[in-house]
Design a protein that fits this description.
The chain is mainly alpha-helical and 85 residues long. Helix 3 crosses helix 4. The chain is globular. It starts with 11 loop residues before the first helix and ends with a helix. The relative contact order is 0.16.
Length: 85
């Protein structure tokens, strides 16, 4: 188990994807931010969905994605829709 897999919402698959795009520590993830990290994952896995985006934000905050404030989810959803379209 790597460092990232210890974070909430991050399992082996997502940790593997983060590692593949050059993110191996929480500090790197925080520095890059959820949106840029998600875009990097999306570039190698077109199935990356909004839940992965929520998961990354939750991991950065140290909480489960279900605990994200509604306003944060709304902002992320707007970003996701823009990137999807």
């Amino acid at each position: 188990m790597g460092e990232l897999e210890k974070l909430p919402n991050i399992g082996k698959v997502v940790e593997g994807q983060l590692n593949e795009v050059g993110i191996t520590t929480l500090e790197q993830l925080k520095e890059l931010g959820n949106r840029q990290a998600w875009l990097k994952i999306k570039s190698i896995d077109d199935s990356a969905c909004i839940h992965r985006l929520y998961s990354l934000e939750g991991a950065i905050r140290g909480i489960r994605k279900t605990q994200l404030p509604e306003d944060v989810k709304a902002e992320l959803k707007e970003f996701y829709q823009q990137m999807k379209g």
